[in-house]
Amino acid sequence: EGGAGSDSEEGRPLAARRRGAAAGKPPAKANASESVGGGEEEEEEDPPPAPAGDGAARELSSVADLEAFMDDNDASVVGAFLEKEMPDPAAVMPEDWDEDEDGTWEAPVVTNPELAAFNSIASSLYNYRFAFSAAPDVLAKLKSKTGGLYLYRSPKFLSAEHGDKPRERFPSTKLSESAVRNWLNSKAQPLVGLYSSSTKERYSGATLVVFFNLDFAKNAKGVSYVLKRARKAAAKLKGKLAVAVASSTDLSYELGDYGLPTDKPNTILMGISAGGQYYAPADGAAAFSGDTMSEFARAFLAGELTPYEKPEPEARPIP
Question: Phi/psi zone of residue 257: left (φ > 0), alpha (ψ -120 to 50 degrees), beta?
Answer without folding.
Answer: alpha
